Amino acid sequence: MKLARRLAEIQPSPTLALNARAKALAAAGKDVAGLSAGEPDFDTPEHVKEAAVQALREGFTKYTATAGIPELRGAIVKKLREENELDFAPEQVIVTNGGKHALYNCFQALLSDGDEVVMFAPYWVSYPEQVLLAGGRPVVVPTRVEEGFQPDPDLLAKALTPRTRAVIFNSPSNPTGAVLPKENLLELAAVMAVHPDVLVITDDIYEKLLYTGHRFTNIANLAPTLRSRTLVVNGMSKAYAMTGWRMGYAAGPKALIHGMQLVQDQATSNVNSITQRAALAALTGPQEPIQAMVKEFHQRRDLLHAGLTQIPGVRCARPEGAFYAFPDVSAWIGKSWKGKTLGSAHDVSERLLEDLLVAAVPGEPFGAPGHLRFSFAASRATLEKGLQRLRDFAAALT
Ligand SMILES: Cc1ncc(COP(=O)(O)O)c(C=O)c1O
Predict the structure, then answer these.
(1) Which of 265, 389, 271, 373 is nearest to 325 (CA)?
(2) Architecture of the CATH domain 5-43+289-396
(3) Which atom of ligand 1 is nearest to the CA of 246?
(4) pTM
(5) CATH 3.40.640.10: does it fit domain 48-284?
(6) pLDDT tens per residue across span 334-387
(7) How far is the CA of 100 from the centre of ligand 1 (A)?
(8) Which of 44, 71, 46 is nearest to 273 (CA)?
(9) Is residue 98 lining ligand 1, measured as CB closer than 6 Å?
(10) Backbone angles phi and psi of 62, in degrees to 5
(11) Interval between CA 361 and ligand 1 midpoint (Å)
């Protein structure tokens, strides 16, 4: 069947594909060390589930306003004010099917054919694909592991053209786990300041998963003059272990939020009514479950990072947030495994999965060839098992 031309440019999500393969192997009884997941291995907090049950019992099962129930939008406004020191009116907030959907709506509402969106590599896999789906052009600014993946402000300045409509910031980052220091954010904000028509997108989905000991800070916190043209994207998936519920949100300029709502009106309407009530409980209820999860992730981060850096051929920056380590394994590329040459990180990931039952995502779709992404949202036993297999793999390379 002939499909739309725009699909020709779109890549399937490699993370979803790899997870599906790892899950199929595990279902077939294989002892997989699954280190590819982009989701907490914790359960949704009990009081959040209880709110969903309550909503069902009350028959809260009808359509809601597309942009979300007023109580939830109000809770998001309060959260942004109290935790992030950012002021938004309720009509500047939209509730979406995950942070992914917030970004999708944004690009659909913002971009005309050929408009450019700047992103820093390594980037989250969906940024370029969503821009392409909206007829836009992703413009990639590289960052370097030696510089802690901090974007160079001069490179950002060079990437901005009259066609640029937005720049995406994502700290803590998927896939690197890097957290941009204030000084770097301030330098980048100074570049943005001289481009008043460019939207600042700050994808704060990993804001709670921080191991720096510092408070979370985004570019809008540091540069008040950028606030009126900043879109904050966030959601419940990572912080509240609610990936399957599909709940995210965005807050930003009224006209943009209105445009995003038009897109959502005609595409999906409201987020599941029960999920919205659960999200309300998550935002307004006890926050201790997050702290317990972050504490455990912190220890796992240490375990994985220490283990990876001891493996010959692996160079790995210490992740300061999120739950990913993103080592450079380019020293393995060109080497031989069981008589076959490894031509890319993709080849390495294939061999690790097929021969050693270790699931790790290759770096290419993150715009970072030569890297692998390991998730530490996995039990310590799984991390130890994965590390042992990686050591065996490295030792057997010739
Ligand atoms: C950087 C980043 N942004 C946004 C999302 C969207 O998550 P969700 O749609 O589950 O809210 C993800 C999920 O992996 C992510 O890694």
Answers:
(1) 373
(2) Alpha-Beta Complex (3.90)
(3) 10
(4) 0.96
(5) yes
(6) 999 999 999 999 999 999 999 999 999 999 999 999 999 999 999 999 999 999
(7) 5
(8) 71
(9) yes
(10) -105, 170
(11) 16
